[in-house]
Amino acid sequence: MTRFRDDPEADALGQALAALRKARGLSQAEAGARMGVTSQAWGLYEAGRRPGMFRPDVQRRLTAALDLTPEDLALEMARQPVSPTRAAERLEEGGRAFSANGTAGSVRRTLQLRDDDLAPWAGSGVVLVYDLAVWPRRDQGCVVETDDGPVIGLYHRGDRDTVVLRGPSGDKRVLERSRIGSVGAVVARLEGVGWPQ
């Protein structure tokens, strides 16, 4: 049997899915039937224990079963708090407890892209929701807050002195940790939200 490590991001996604299902007045069995899976399978998604739950096609199927969109799920996820204990443990266990500054809970921020430098991953107008309490996985989008402003890219690697991001075309950017204030994983990309400029 596969064992899943606690993952605050997966937990938040599962909690958001459960909140949306309950708001629609559906049981896990009813939601699962609409998606073509068992109530147990649906329950694993809500528990954050189902592989592939971050894939866009899976999120489209999950939200379609609730007559919603992946954007609805992302917005609900942005509202869900990350367990303070789990967030702190996740930063500690990877030996990457960087710029947590004692922050134990979710610290979510938004940033709207103004250009297409990250296309096709994300284009102009897309709003990124990033969480400073969640360190990015390899090839996950992240926002690095530096002295010169935010730097956005796909996380490649990090060590004691640097953080390396790569762009969609594969180009790499090395950032010195001495110039970095914080690093946060992108937990949602919202398109067509119509946020104020």
From TrEMBL:
InterPro entries according to UniProt: Cro/C1-type_HTH, Lambda_DNA-bd_dom_sf
Protein name as catalogued: HTH cro/C1-type domain-containing protein
Domain of life where this protein originates: Bacteria
Native organism taxonomy: Bacteria, Pseudomonadati, Pseudomonadota, Alphaproteobacteria, Caulobacterales
Pfam families: HTH_31
Listed GO MF terms: DNA binding
SUPFAM superfamilies attached to this UniProt entry: lambda repressor-like DNA-binding domains (SSF47413)
N-terminal signal peptide: none
Region annotation (Disordered) ranges: 80-101
Organism: Brevundimonas abyssalis TAR-001
SMART domains named in the record: HTH_XRE
PROSITE patterns, per database record: HTH_CROC1
Domain HTH cro/C1-type: 17-73
